[in-house]
What we know:
By secondary structure, this protein is of the alpha/beta class. The chain contains six helices and ten strands, in the order E-H-E-E-H-E-H-H-E-E-H-E-H-E-E-E. The model has no long low-confidence stretch (mean pLDDT 93).
Amino acid sequence: MAQFFIVHPDNPQTRLLKQAVQLLNQGSVLAVPTDSSYALVCHLDDKNAADQLRRIRGVDDKHHLTVLCRDLSELANYAKVDNRQFRTIKQATPGPFTFILEATKEVPRRVSHPQRKTIGLRVPAHTVLQELLTLHGAPLLAATLILPGDEWPLNDPEEIRERLEHQVGAVIDAGACSLEPTTVVDMSSDEPEILRQGQGDPARLGLRQSGSL
């Protein structure tokens, strides 16, 4: 049965987030708020938790999962980023963007794309999630909380709890999030390409919706 942590969106209770971190370290998948929509997260190095996250989402190993980082310096540990890519990412970080980049050896091979060896990376701008990342002391593996058959992400914590009661370890309730997921930008090749238009404005990256500069 999932635990339910009600936290203040701007000043979250540390003791509750520490309990959430304990669940992550024990192998649980959590539902957490972000600066776009709610997301599923788990420990980056826990294979069973990553498999459970994929089962909940109904996706296979070719679906790009995302590594949530606290800041740009941490992101650079998990992705191969050249100076041009770094400058582009910096313009919209933190924020509701997911960048597809070539993964470094710090990313477990089982969570990167099996053929392309890429991974989604992002730095969220959400106080609760940033505090959770800080207390956890490392990035988290994540996926947008869109359940199989649904068109939009879940954003009501009570509904998330009801539908995922026996599949997640906890729901962190910091109020409703946006229904719009992140904007996904593939930066693994020479020219950035927008794979999904979401909440993030491509103009912040100097891009049009077509993905061209």
